[in-house]
Amino acid sequence: MTVNRRTRRALSRSLPRVLAATAVAGSLALAGCSSGGTPSSTSGSGDFDGVELTVWNNIDYDPYQSLQEKYFADCATELGITVKNETITGDYTSKLLQAASSKSLPDIALLSTDVQVPLLASQGVLADLDSLGVSTDGLEDSVAALGQYEDTLYALPVQVEDYAVFYNKDLFAAAGITEAPTTFDELVEDAKALTTADQYGVAFAGNATDGAAPVFFLPFLLSAGGDPADPTSDGAVAAVDLYKKLFDDGSLSKEFVNWGWDANDQWTGGKAAIAVTGPWQLVTPTDFEYGIAPFPTLEAGEEPKVGLLGYAYGVAAQSDETKAQAAAALVECRASEENQVETAVQGGYIPALTTAQEAFVAEVPGAAPFVDAVPTAVNTATLGTDWNTLQQQYVTAIQDATVNGTSAEEALSKAVAGQ
Question: What is this structure's pTM?
Answer without folding.
Answer: 0.82
